[in-house]
Design a protein that fits this description.
With about 475 residues, the protein is of the alpha/beta class. It has 13 helices and 21 strands. It folds into four domains: about 160 residues, Methylthiotransferase, N-terminal domain (Rossmann fold, 3-Layer(aba) Sandwich), CATH 3.40.50.12160; about 110 residues, Transcription Regulator spoIIAA (2-Layer Sandwich), CATH 3.30.750.210; about 90 residues, Transcription Regulator spoIIAA (2-Layer Sandwich), CATH 3.30.750; about 55 residues, Nucleic acid-binding proteins (OB fold (Dihydrolipoamide Acetyltransferase, E2P)). Bound molecules: 5'-deoxyadenosine and iron/sulfur cluster (SF4).
Length: about 475
């Protein structure tokens, strides 16, 4: 048994880590043939991609996938800790599974993801949720087949969570959710330690994958007919810093852009590491999508300092305008937190005025959520929840106005759309533009997922656009 430990998770040193190739344990191949699984994924794209690895591990063990947890022999929760409501959702699901297990004694229940790295969560599971069969941390997901096997063979709860990153494991098996767009990890972890954020504790320090490994994975995806890759990391802009003297995200993006892949995306970018070279490269290559997610978090320099964000309102705006002015047609989205401890009405007004200046194409807005073990949870907070909810409401009204205004400018234009599938609306398809706008459209011609086609935009809504293929 290995339990999480925050002291260790906080450690940042320069131990060398090795790139190790994943080795399959052939003794467990197809050992559980005939059994079924269901994975419930919470949170970010990183988790979605981890679930693609989990699916491959389970398939190797012989499990087959079902589309409803009630039908599964194994229910897997791949969890998120970013805010309290993510926690509550996972614990709510565990509550439902407890009832299910009363009826179905052989049901297997597993948990992985960021919640598995949290000391208090693991303590709660050991104390109150003895029916959970195994908990696997984010740093040792590759051990999953043997952990499941052990949990079944020994019929005993297995908790295997490493708080320090081990080596970087290459060649993990993967069952991708799509056949035309794929996630590719380029860097793991985060060293920024924003004072509100749990991620540096749950995902460890920044570790870049070697460029050769990333480029090889992308070459294979291209060979397999993939049209879009999204480069993933908690902070992709830090790519290469831990590994190379002089090779960073701009250089990696350029090498990928020279390959024959129509769409390249990347996320998430911390404004701190966004350099001119990156901006130039994005502007230069048409297959790097002009869509940048640039979380601001607050428009008040005072709050940004308390958040440990390492930039001011002014330096953020300077970067924002440089990106807008250099990359033709770029869309910029953001994340904003309201109600950070001690945020005054004046601080909040600065956030609103920044939104008026930036007129974002999309924004994810949140109320500050206390995460145990982070510095912000010790800050005095005299803003009531009611006030925070009110601020969120006022902020959402403003951001929504700009989504619609920006979308309206696209009416009458022809946009390149990558088809995703058939929309909920009858006789309509849906897909995403280069700037990542959701487009619902009609087409008299047959189209299929992964096709990139021209769509005439006929009308704009706040969160989507309608169009037609002529
Ligand atoms: N409370 C509220 N929002 C948070 N985020 C991260 N941590 C917290 C927290 N404790 C938001 C940030 C980040 C996004 C992924 O989640 O805006 O950019
Ligand atoms: Fe969290 Fe800040 Fe790292 Fe983003 S950059 S994952 S907000 S610590």
């Amino acid at each position: 048994m290995h339990l999480p430990d925050y002291k260790e998770a906080r450690t940042r040193d320069h131990r060398d880590y090795q790139r190790i190739s994943y080795e399959v344990d052939s003794a467990v191949q197809n050992k559980y043939k005939g059994k079924t699984f269901f994975i419930k994924t919470y949170g970010c794209q990183m988790n979605e991609h981890d679930s693609e690895n989990i699916e491959a591990f389970l398939s190797y063990l012989g499990f087959s996938k079902v589309d409803n947890y009630l039908k599964a022999d194994l229910v897997w929760l791949n969890t998120c800790s970013i805010r309290e409501n993510a926690h509550n959702k996972a614990f709510g699901m565990l509550g439902r599974l407890k009832h299910l297990k009363n009826e179905k004694k052989d049901l297997l229940i597993g948990l992985s993801g960021c919640m598995a790295q949290e000391v208090s969560v693991v303590e709660t599971i050991m104390r109150d949720y003895p029916f959970v069969n195994f908990v696997v941390g984010t740093h040792n997901l590759h051990q999953l087949p043997s952990i499941i096997d052990k949990a079944i063979v020994e019929n005993q709860q297995q908790i295997e969570v490493f708080s320090r990153e081990g080596d970087l494991i290459e060649g993990l098996p993967v069952v991708r959710a799509n056949s035309y767009k794929a996630y590719v990890n380029i860097i793991y972890g985060c060293d920024k330690f924003c004072t509100y954020c749990i991620v540096p504790y749950t995902r460890g320090r920044e570790r870049s994958r070697a460029k050769e490994d990333i480029l090889k994975e992308i070459d294979e995806l291209i060979q397999d007919g993939y049209k879009e890759v999204t480069l993933l990391g908690q902070n992709v802009n830090a790519y290469g810093k831990d590994l190379y003297e002089n090779y960073h995200l701009g250089d990696l993006l350029e090498e990928i852009a020279l390959k024959n892949i129509p769409r390249i995306r990347f996320m998430t970018s911390h404004p701190w590491d966004f350099n001119d070279r990156m901006i130039e490269v994005i502007a230069k290559y048409p297959n790097i999508m002009p869509s940048v997610h640039l979380p601001v978090q607050s428009g008040s320099s005072r709050i940004l300092k308390l958040m440990g964000r390492r930039y001011t309102r002014e330096s953020y705006l300077e970067l924002f305008h440089k990106i807008k002015d250099t990359i033709p047609g770029v869309s910029i989205s953001t994340d904003i937190i309201v109600g950070f401890p001690g945020e005054t009405e004046e601080d909040f007004q600065e956030t609103l005025s920044l939104v008026h200046e930036c007129q974002y194409d999309n924004a994810f807005t949140f109320i500050f959520s206390t995460r145990e073990g982070t510095p912000a949870c010790k800050l005095p907070d005299n803003v009531s929840l009611e006030e925070k909810e009110e601020r969120l409401h006022r902020l959402n009204e403003v951001v929504n106005t700009y989504f619609l205004e920006n979308n309206k400018k696209l009416e009458g234009q022809v946009l390149k759309v990558m088809v995703e599938g058939v929309s909920d609306k009858k006789d309509m398809y849906y897909g995403y533009s280069e700037t990542n706008k959701l487009i619902n459209f009609s087409s008299s011609q047959e189209v299929k997922p992964g096709d990139i086609i021209d769509v005439l935009i006929t009308s704009a809504k706040t969160w989507s656009l309608d169009g037609k293929v002529e």
